[in-house]
Amino acid sequence: MARAPIKVFDDGFEIQPDFERFDQKNDVFRRSWWDERIRSAKSERFYSTYRDPLQNFRAAEG
Q1: Cα–Cα distance between 6 and 13 in angstroms, integer?
Q2: pTM above 0.70, yes or no
Q3: Any residues with CB less than 8 A from the CB of 25 and at least 6 apart, and which?
Q4: pLDDT digits (tens, 9 = 90+) for 9-50
């Protein structure tokens, strides 16, 4: 079902039918996600576990 554009407060904002709601998991402001110069195995592991938590965390006291 197609949605019609929605005007917001007559300030010139128009929400188009193809608008996608913000999703923090796909946030473009995470530099190590998009900048290959600082991307590493650790940052890749962080993002993979951010979406799917690790099955086995190391046991730690405290």
Answers
A1: 8
A2: no
A3: 50, 51
A4: 567 777 888 887 776 666 666 778 778 888 899 888 887 777
